[in-house]
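To: structure desk
From: M.T.
Subject: fold request, one chain
Message: Could you run this one when you get a chance? Sequence is below, nothing fancy, just the single chain.
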Amino acid sequence: MIQRLFLTLLTFFQFFTLIGQDTIVSKEMDTILCKIEKESKYSIYYSILDNGNKETSYINYISILYYVKDGSKIRPRNNTEKSSIATKFRASLNLGFAYRIAKENEALTEQGQEYAKGLRLGFQYNIDAHFYSLKGIGYGLKFSRFSVSNSSSAFILDNTISGRDTALSIEDNIQLSFLGPSLSFNLLKYKTNALYFNIAVGYIWYRNNAVLLQSIEFKGNTIAGSADLSYDIPLNENFKLGFQISYIGGILNSGEFFTKDGSGSFSPTEETRENLRRLEFSIGLRFNK
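Reply: Done. Structure tokens follow.
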């Protein structure tokens, strides 16, 4: 009993030693009882006790209504929606995978459709950078690249002339690159964490280094659109860890092909045209200033 009482008193002593009289009140009227460790240009770093363990975090001034340090109540300067403390620049680098969501061409054989399914899931990376206005709207640029490949050493080609099927080796190495201007909106601009919604309109460049009896290179481009949803978790004052899901869509209506014997163009029908829609899932690093 005495030991339990001693531990309780010790915990309370540690708690009051740590937090003193410091208090932070956010614009959402959340109250943080803490010890303010440091006041930087953009943020307040503070510590709290959680189950007897000291934990350190920070909050941006733009999220603070007022705070009390050493008995003095302080209201941050420029504490308005148009505060200059808001993010002015954000750049992100993301790595992950993408999945093409268009259906396989129904005109393909069963083996052809199975082969096409192997060209759905691939590696992707994307980069974007935005400058933000006082209203929290970002203007910038987005780039994304997706790569996927598949091959078969025993693909059956239906030869309707000879009446006999022919087995041959085929290969596809597809690369899709998107580039376009982008708008960015911070949906949680008064929170420590951030939720960004980005939209972009630009071009997709399609390239496929394929093998079908001989090496063939297919090229094309088309107008495309993109949308991102990114959740950012702060690592420190300038860097954040982000989780992002993206959609990119476009349809390739024409293009060119190149072989060792020459070149030409192709214009697929509505049933056979290349649908470039995909979903991207990625994790990455953000730099904020």
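Reply (cont.): The first strand starts at residue 23 and ends at 26. Let me know if you need anything else for the meeting.
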